[in-house]
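Re: Re: token formats

Sure, here are both.
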Amino acid sequence: MDKLKEKLSRLMYGRYGIDQLGNFMMWAAVAMMIFGAVVRSSLIYTLALVLIVWADVRIMSKNHSKRYAENQKFLELKNHVVGFFRGGTRAFKDKEHCYFRCPSCHQQVRVPKGKGHIEIRCPKCGTKFIKNT
């Protein structure tokens, strides 16, 4: 057992390894394989296999800087998508306020509902804009 562990350790020496993107790709491939088996689609199943091979190539890669850059882009996209849904849920649940974005700095501004046509001043940059609540 120790020899196998040593061989695997030597194989992975200098390799990039698994990161958040690789983990996501593996789980997405498993989900696609299950879905492909349920709907009996060989295309989806084949795409899942391609995704697994791509994830394995990333894991075994020795080009750390390129894999790191790919992972950073994935994390930015993930945070953008997750942040969109988090911000949307708060605005959706809040029945007493309206949420607007400042046209210059894109800061989210909360104002009370039912005030009609009002001038809003952005707390971050001071830009004034008019919205209807």
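Second one below.
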Amino acid sequence: MENVNVRDPREHVNEEPRDDLKDLMFGFGGMLGFMTVAYIIMVIVKYMIGD
């Protein structure tokens, strides 16, 4: 067994490099899009109920 310090970030090999900014933008955009669609649906439902 090798003597490796698993808590040392300098020894960590990044197996799957990711673009964090792109992930953030996709996540933010996806959530914004979902909330916009949910808002539009709720407005339509409100007017269909006839408040």
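Helices lie at 20-49. The two ends are 70 Å apart (CA to CA).
- S.
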